[in-house]
Amino acid sequence: MDKMEKLTVVKVGGKIVEDEESLQQLLQDFSAIEGAKVLVHGGGRSATKVAAQLGIESTMIGGRRVTDAEMLKVVTMVYGGLVNKSIVARLQACGINALGLTGADMNVMQSHKRPLKKVKMEDGVEQMVDFGFVGDVDACDGRMLATLIDEGVVPVMAPLTHDKQGHLLNTNADTIAGETAKALAPYFDVTLIYSFEHAGVLTDPDDEASVIPHITAESFEQLKADGVVSGGMIPKIENALEAVKAGVKRVIITKADAIDGKQGTVIS
């Protein structure tokens, strides 16, 4: 297997997945990406909607879903079934030989149940929170994924992992994308693309033209100190820098309609 073959890992958020038009456009753009590729998807909004229809309440703490036993059934059905297989079917229609995977399939991604975690609540008070059946990743089998990719298969990863004890665990899609990219770095020249609703990391959140073109570990510290980067963008960039440190060539944070890697904020 040629180590230097280019591979693109694209993470697409729930907002795009749940809008018919934007999803169709994204899958066409994804299909047009040259070379080897992997798609990682979310689907939280669909899970919340289906849960409500089943009379199951969704609890979010610090932007993360608390996954009890009933909610785990819902996210398994929605992420591993409805969303994943719909994307796979649509990619087949675009001429892409896609294969939908959870972390349990081929033992591709193993995790452990998240221990109690200290979280700053909305009132500013820190509290220990049990997120339930949520997985923190221990290992990703890059060799197995590389073998599939080498056979012309395009993996489509759902945000579910397993603990090798027979339990599925709900796992953050950004984390799945980062771990997948890191695990494939020894086999390919990997670009990781996080697509979301903005054109990149912005100096002014109200100005889509204020994209910061390039962020390094050094400039990130300065951007944090100056308050330019704050909130949920901090962990996103931290994850991106960790991926680069682990051998991923570049991480790009960009808008969902710009996943060709030519726009957005490059982190390297």
Account of the 3D structure:
With 268 residues, this protein is of the alpha/beta class. It has one domain (6-196): Carbamate kinase, CATH 3.40.1160.10. Helix content is 35%, strand content 26%. The chain has 8 helices and 16 strands. Strands 5-10-2-1-13-15-16-14 form an 8-stranded mixed β-sheet, with helices on both faces. The radius of gyration is 18 Å and the shape is globular.
Defining traits:
268 residues; alpha/beta; Carbamate kinase; eight-stranded mixed beta sheet; two-stranded antiparallel sheet; 35% helix
Please, what is the CATH homologous superfamily? Acetylglutamate kinase-like
Q: Which regions are unreliable across 5 or more consecutive residues at pLDDT < 50?
A: none
Average pLDDT level: 91
> Structural class of the secondary elements?
alpha/beta
CATH topology: Carbamate kinase
Specify the CATH architecture: 3-Layer(aba) Sandwich
Number of helices: 8
Distance between the termini: 25 Å
Q: Estimate the global geometry from the Cα principal axes.
A: globular
Order of helices and strands: EHHEHEEHEEEEEHEEEHEEHHEE
Q: Helix coverage percent of residues?
A: 25-40%
Number of domains: 1
* Strands, total number: 16
Name the strands of the widest sheet in spatial order.
5-10-2-1-13-15-16-14
Instruction: Tell me the Rg in angstroms.
Output: 18 Å
Describe the main β-sheet briefly: 8 strands, mixed
Beta-strand percentage range: 25-35%
The CATH top-level class label: Alpha Beta
